[in-house]
Amino acid sequence: MTTAPRTLTAPLDERGFALVLHGGAGGRVEELSLEVKADYDAGLAAAHRAGEEVLAAGGAALDAVCATVAALEDDPLFNAGRGAALTASGRAELDASVMTGDGAAGAVAASRWARNPVQAARAVMERTDHVLLVAPAAKLVRSWGLETVDPEHFVTEARLAQLRRVLAARQEAPRHGTVGAVAIDAEGRIAAATSTGGMVGQADGRVGDTPIIGAGTFARDGVIGVSCTGEGEAFLRGAVAHDVTARIAYAGQEPLAAIEATIAAELTARGASGGLIAAGPTGVVVAHNSPAMFAAYREGERLVTLT
Ligand code: ASP
Hints:
Strand order of the largest sheet: 5-4-3-7-6-2-12-13
Structural class: alpha+beta
Number of helices: 8
CATH class: Alpha Beta
Distance between the termini: 17 Å
CATH architecture: 4-Layer Sandwich
Number of strands: 13
Oligomer: single chain
Bound molecules: aspartic acid
Shape: globular
CATH superfamily: (Glycosyl)asparaginase
Number of domains: 1
Low-confidence stretches: none
């Protein structure tokens, strides 16, 4: 379901950096009980803090987005890492990607062993000659110095119950929960990261936009970094994260205009719903045409959380 596009912006922190995160695009906020909403708000705030602390200490945008996304992966409320949406056969097949604005990128698809898929994506970027690895083996993940877990670690009772409801067609596949973060650090370096379990009840082996550089994630220093969420097939067809970047870099559009134009052309016009977050030299943007989107960013003293 799509609605009139909504965009929110904030300038860079007075300390010269910014971090924006999302917790997925989906249905209306009213669907959440107050109690659950408070839990989501707390999860978003904690994850924002994890990344912002890195930036405040003079750390790199890459470290900040990885810290934020790992915190959300560890929170079972979100559709990434533990508590991820399950495939039709009840498996957690996790996709994640990371990109830095100097052109480095790494991703994993259908990951089953790495406790934090975003760290595995980063390892692909930093420790291999490749950009995307499908289903990296536990041994390989451990050789990168990363923690592995039994694939059952990711499967929660809540997600199994949700899968049963969706497969019995008693519930439309719910959305929300894919996570991502984009940051620009005090030195102007941009990084973006995204992580998901995909769509509830998706075919085993289905890979969405999240681990595809240029679709779900993209970053270019001096231009913008983007992390997407929503109906992945539309983001793949429209190369959405790169489309936003190209509009700014080649057509000279302002970030907000570029984002609105991409959402209109690649999502709304095609009947697809979703959203994206972005950060660049002028600040951060949260934009979506889905009824709601979970996100967090700072506006001066105030941490804004959207649920
Ligand atoms: N874009 C993700 C996918 O298609 C899902 C989401 O963001 O909700 O796998």
